[in-house]
Task: inverse folding
């Protein structure tokens, strides 16, 4: 029982990393960035390709850089022209869907569509009383916590974080005050992609990577962002932990196939009951 | 010859699907990603009534339409009444995934991942549609009825009210009409034709399993109408034509089969991204897509 809870907590931290990336993109640009899942996948596959050539640390470093650049490229080539035309959010959603399909199919063309294992050495797991923590899970814990903390500090303390929050809060007023919207958009996409790729690598070292898992992970991240409230970072983190724990318990008591169903049933319920998210107390989002 | 007939049958099924989604998304402005759930519910109910209860094709289809409207159309209308724009789209994704989960896991009813094999071919007054050519005429009948219906429907006053729901819901309320009612009409008609397409698909392939009705399928149907253009007949038909004929064209330029499926999706998604960027109405569409 505690075991399932701990596993859920660790999964929740990884989901939180992806979701925070999704969150800053969604709140700063109002783009429902499905291609986030594409970047998640592409980062890991870049690592798979570069690892035999370069070794562990440079490959990880380069794949993070690659994800960062990919995020910038998508913003530059797809979203920026739409932003300039001030198109509506559904157009951005559809473009994003297109970009996602392109990325995933290129990955499948190059690497095949079977699940790839990043790390196949058998390692000792750690036993703490009743709880067993595997070595990859320990790494996940070890890297995920500081990453989330760093992100939190970046958003809450630094000047750039303040600008991002300003743009999210009121884009027009923020631009009036002299914040360069385009620069912040690039920053947000780069940073979000970085988060997605680091979560993907951490997850990949544990259970491997399957090119079609990108959609499920983006949608989970989206659910978490909506459930937690679109303008609250704390909400996103709490909602990811809760959702991952619920998912793990569902897997244990029902079956793995019910996982997505339960996730989205929760989404429908939250959308109807509290559109503004569980942690927020302001006006309904669609009336803003 | 059978090969060409097969392509034409699949093409007509996609035309019916695309036209039905076009009513909901193009005319009524509800951008939704749950067409495969409608289509799949239709296919499953028709199949179960035919295989388990031994009903004839047309009786099963009739009942399936009623049940599907009762289930899906009512639920979607309820969601459409409560949520707007992105949130409605997200709710339809949720509906789609919940549908897939239920069909996949409710094994006592739907046989889950094993699928339902041996679906009988339709029969009408002793006239059986067994060969592909005979089946082709059946789908030709349904697709022509669909096209004629939508051609006629676009000219009715009711359709103007649906367009009004899309353009300005408040204005409609001011005129003393209820948007929820028009949304329900629109979604019901969509469900009606999606059920027909599902029943045709199930009886033609004679085997269904949940993986034919995933979110990817919904995305595909939406892509078809967005590439072709929404809000008229020619747009969705063109979109379906491009989608179904693209792999055949790729075959002629000697692309190996192993990469053809992915190359097709890449080309199609690229067309989508470019069209959204440079021609938001689609190739022949009347309206820009919106919430």
Result:
């Amino acid at each position: 029982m505690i075991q399932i809870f701990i596993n859920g907590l660790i999964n929740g931290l990884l989901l939180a990393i992806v979701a925070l990336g999704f969150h800053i993109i969604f709140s700063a640009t109002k783009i429902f960035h499905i291609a986030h899942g594409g970047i998640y996948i592409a980062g890991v596959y870049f690592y798979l390709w570069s690892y035999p050539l370069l070794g562990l640390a440079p490959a990880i470093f380069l794949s993070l850089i690659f994800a960062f650049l990919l995020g910038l490229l998508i913003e530059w080539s797809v979203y920026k022209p739409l932003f300039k035309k001030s198109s509506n959010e559904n157009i951005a959603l559809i473009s994003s869907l297109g970009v996602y399909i392109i990325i995933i199919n290129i990955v499948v063309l190059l690497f095949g569509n079977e699940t790839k294992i990043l790390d196949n050495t058998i390692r000792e797991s750690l036993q703490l009383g009743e709880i067993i923590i595997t070595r990859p899970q320990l790494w996940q814990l070890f890297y995920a916590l500081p990453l989330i903390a760093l992100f939190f500090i970046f958003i809450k303390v630094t000047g750039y974080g303040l600008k991002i929050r300003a743009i999210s809060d009121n884009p027009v007023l923020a631009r009036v005050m002299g914040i360069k919207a385009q620069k912040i958009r690039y920053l947000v996409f780069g940073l979000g992609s970085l988060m997605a790729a680091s979560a993907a690598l951490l997850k990949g070292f544990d259970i491997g990577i399957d090119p079609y898992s990108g959609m499920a992970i983006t949608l989970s991240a989206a659910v978490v962002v909506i459930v937690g409230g679109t303008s609250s970072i704390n909400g996103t983190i709490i909602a990811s932990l809760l959702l991952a724990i619920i998912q793990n318990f569902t897997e244990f008591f029902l079956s793995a196939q019910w996982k997505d169903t339960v996730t989205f049933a929760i989404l429908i319920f939250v959308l109807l009951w509290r559109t503004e998210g569980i942690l927020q107390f302001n006006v309904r989002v669609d009336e803003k | 010859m059978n090969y060409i007939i097969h392509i034409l049958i699949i093409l007509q099924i996609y035309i019916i699907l695309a036209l039905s989604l076009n009513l909901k998304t193009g005319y009524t402005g509800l951008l939704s990603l749950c067409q495969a759930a409608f289509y799949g519910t239709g296919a499953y109910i028709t199949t179960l009534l035919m295989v388990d209860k031994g009903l004839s094709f047309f009786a099963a289809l009739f009942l399936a339409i009623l049940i599907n409207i009762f289930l899906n159309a009512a639920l979607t209308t309820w969601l459409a009444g409560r949520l707007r724009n992105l949130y409605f789209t997200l709710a339809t994704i949720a509906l789609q995934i919940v549908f897939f989960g239920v069909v996949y896991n409710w094994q006592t009813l739907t046989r889950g991942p094993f699928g339902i094999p041996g679906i009988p071919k339709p029969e009408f007054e002793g006239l059986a549609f067994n060969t592909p050519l005979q089946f082709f005429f059946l789908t030709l009948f349904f697709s022509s009825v669909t096209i004629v219906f939508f051609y006629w429907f676009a000219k009715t006053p009711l359709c103007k009210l649906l367009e009004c729901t899309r353009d300005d819901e408040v204005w409609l309320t001011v005129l003393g009409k209820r948007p929820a009612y028009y949304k329900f009409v629109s979604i019901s008609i969509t469900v009606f034709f999606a059920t027909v397409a599902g029943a045709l698909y199930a009886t033609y392939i004679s085997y269904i399993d949940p993986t034919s009705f995933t979110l990817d399928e919904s995305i595909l149907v939406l892509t078809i109408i967005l590439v072709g253009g929404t809000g008229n007949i020619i747009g969705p038909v063109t979109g379906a034509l491009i989608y179904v004929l693209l792999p055949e064209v790729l075959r002629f330029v000697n692309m190996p089969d192993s990469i053809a499926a992915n190359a097709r999706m890449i080309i199609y998604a690229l067309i989508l991204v470019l069209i959204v960027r440079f021609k938001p109405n689609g190739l022949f569409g009347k309206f820009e897509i919106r919430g």
In short: Residues 2-213 of chain B form one domain.
